[in-house]
Amino acid sequence: MNQRSKIRDLVHPLQSFLGYQLRRASSFMQADLAERIADLGLTVVEASTLLVIEANPGVTQSAIGRLISIKRANMAPLAASLIERGLISAAPVDGRSQGLTLTEEGERTVDLLRQRIAKNEARLIRNLDVSEVERLVEQLNQIWREH
Amino acid sequence: MNQRSKIRDLVHPLQSFLGYQLRRASSFMQADLAERIADLGLTVVEASTLLVIEANPGVTQSAIGRLISIKRANMAPLAASLIERGLISAAPVDGRSQGLTLTEEGERTVDLLRQRIAKNEARLIRNLDVSEVERLVEQLNQIWREH
DNA sequence: TATTGTTATACTCTATAACTATA
DNA sequence: TATAGTTATAGAGTATAACAATA
């Protein structure tokens, strides 16, 4: 008896849970995207941060963290690493805050990044009816939006 | 200008990505469930493992890992911890495999666990139309099922 | 007083490599 | 040869606590 037949013989008690399906779908997406951007030297969280900075030039670390739920304590080394790699630059807005902006290299990286994300999204929805994707996004948003 | 108005002033470039919505919805669910079962001394992965063992008495570590995608190397300390806490017991099935089964205490814990998960699921879907939940589960399953 | 940025630290989950023992 | 179990180790992501400097 090989592995595959053993798996099929098992009962899978988690399949019907929405929480479990969310976890599996999310980690599948995360792994796929991580692989697609690995050659850019970026993690998923770093990539998300770059997109937020691009959309909001001059945004501070703290504001980014509030927008996409990254703790201040974790934003500090993340921003420092992006600065060190020349992808973003920091300009003082007052005595304690720094406005973050993409460098030219950062903008080039984001252009590549957007292409990789588009392929990631296409991969995710290739088994879904296109007309239902927008509703799916809205349903997922309703799950966590107000909290 | 306070924090909330600052957040509203920012552009959120990730909102329309299915991958991002999956990540946020999944991590919201995970955090909610983790909180609900913390008093049982269980993590989400430990809880998942207990449910698989309950549904498949005598299952081996490796088979559990294949079913819910946990690496053998990570199953070992996980199973050892559940045994040490008296929630499962191991009986040799051959010279190298051990069949895992819930102890009586493990069964009592799973009974409580099921109630907590039910509340977690109810929380997740409280903003959704009930008739659409089943389809949502199926759509999520389609995203990762074949890989 | 509240906020920004920072450092230190720890936990969860996941991943690979390497090893022993058994099928 | 392949599989089961184990150990060591590392990388992501996330969490809290505490601190200095500034608003």
Task: Describe the protein.
- The structure is a homodimer of 147-residue chains.
- Chain A is mainly α and 147 residues long.
- Chain A contains seven helices and two strands.
- In chain A, α2 (18-37) packs across α6 (104-124), α3 (44-55) packs across α6 (104-124) and α4 (61-68) crosses α5 (72-84).
- Chain A is elongated.
- Residues 1-5 of chain A have low confidence and may be disordered.
Quick check: average pLDDT of chain A? 92
Overall strand count of chain A: 2
Residue share in helices of chain A? 55-70%
**Largest interface, chains and sizes:** A-B, 58 and 58 residues
Instruction: Quickly count the helices of chain A.
Output: 7
Give the helix/strand class of chain A.
Answer: mainly alpha
Written as H for each helix and E for each strand, in order along the chain, the element string of chain A is HHHHHEEHH
Main sheet properties of chain A: 2 strands, antiparallel
* Cα separation of the termini of chain A: 48 Å
Uncertain runs of chain A with pLDDT below 50, 5 residues or more? Answer: 1-5
Beta fraction of the residues of chain A?
5-15%
Oligomer: homodimer
Rg of chain A, alpha carbons:
19 Å
Strand order of the largest sheet of chain A: 1-2
Shape of chain A: elongated
